[in-house]
Amino acid sequence: MITLTDSAVQAVGRFISNSDKPTAGLRIEVTDGGCSGLSYGLRLEDKEAAEDTVIDCGEVKVFVDPASYPKLDGMSIDFVDSLEGSGFKFSNPNAVKSCACGSSFTTGDNGGTPKTCS
After folding, report:
1. Cα gap 24→45, rounded to integer Å
2. DSSP conformational letter for 92
3. The model's pTM
């Protein structure tokens, strides 16, 4: 299961309400990249795909594709708004190594292809 804190749900809700397009929910995915090999991807989606796992987080639905789900299962996502900056913070029990920026990670069974963080 993937969970979003109340702060993350509120942030996604703001992004959805400000979107120009109809939005069904938030897609969370894992892609190759970042200095640790795998990166988190977040984007608003207009519909779920047939093979997605759909997680109901109150006013927000989360869509996860089958390849990403095992790398994200058990993860918690928070939204932090502070003087140092604002953004999503990922707590992923599947990550055996993460980079300093917090958006790149490696799992025990799949390290991905590292790339320079930008």
Report:
1. 6
2. -
3. 0.81
